[in-house]
Specification:
Layout: H1 4-18, H2 25-32, E1 38-43, H3 50-53, E2 61-66, H4 83-94, E3 99-105, H5 109-115, H6 127-132, H7 136-145, H8 151-170, H9 174-182, E4 186-193, E5 198-203, E6 208-211
Parallel strand pairs: 1-2, 1-3, 3-4
Antiparallel strand pairs: 4-5, 5-6
Length: about 210
């Protein structure tokens, strides 16, 4: 099991690799600032690090991570704390990213909580329960369309349907909608099957997640 001392040792290896005289990557990133073209909304699950899964270098991705990779709809700025929305705004309006990828994954604990009852209205109040209500429509759709499915099938379908709900919510932000309409921003729904090592992409034509 990884300990804090392991992380410190890891940092020393990282520093030796990237802060030597012949490695200009971070000096360049400091000098030029960050200019990622891709924003990824991912889950905080420790098994699904976007930079690791997608084999990216520092500066390649602007990453937002939260429970179950959910995007809330645009809401009043005076109500609540909007960490995900603020990060989206920064990526789209100020960094000018050209792609937003909602990256879901199999065996998501947040989605599982919807099906074990911990996110229902009668459950004990918690931050997680409140947050996961963003995926309630996804769960309702799956249960209505797949009444005889197994619990595992329900969860997988809801993980993927949650990605589609987040893509729909992205379009409620004016600056996302305008950029998509203008053709300067593209939205993508991806699903990482951590059990089988597959990456699936939502195809709007077939309305299915297809393997890349």
């Amino acid at each position: 099991m990884t300990s804090p001392s392991d992380l410190i040792s890891g940092f020393h290896r990282f520093r030796e690799q990237h802060f030597t005289d012949d490695d200009a990557l971070y000096r360049q990133l400091v000098q030029d600032g960050q200019t990622p073209k891709i924003l990824v909304v991912a889950c905080c699950d420790s098994r699904v690090d976007p930079a690791l899964v997608l084999d990216c270098a520092p500066g390649d991705l602007f990453v937002i991570r939260n429970v179950a990779n959910l995007v809330p709809p645009a809401e009043s700025r005076d109500n609540g704390r909007h960490g995900t929305s603020a990060a989206l705004e920064y990526g789209v309006r100020f960094l000018g990213v050209e792609h937003v990828i909602v990256l879901g994954h199999a065996h998501c604990g947040g989605i599982r909580s919807l099906f074990n009852g911990s996110s229902t209205a009668g459950a004990q109040a918690s931050y997680i329960n409140s947050w996961m209500r963003l995926a309630q429509d996804a769960q309702n759709k799956v249960l209505a369309e797949m009444p005889r499915a197994t619990p595992e099938e329900h969860e997988r379908a809801c993980e993927q349907q949650g990605i589609l709900c987040s893509l729909k919510n992205l379009m409620t932000f004016d600056w996302v909608n305008n950029a998509v309409t203008a053709g300067t921003l593209k939205l993508h729904g991806w699903y990482f099957d951590i059990e089988h090592g597959q990456l699936l992409c939502y195809d709007a034509t077939t309305r299915r997640f297809e393997e890349l």
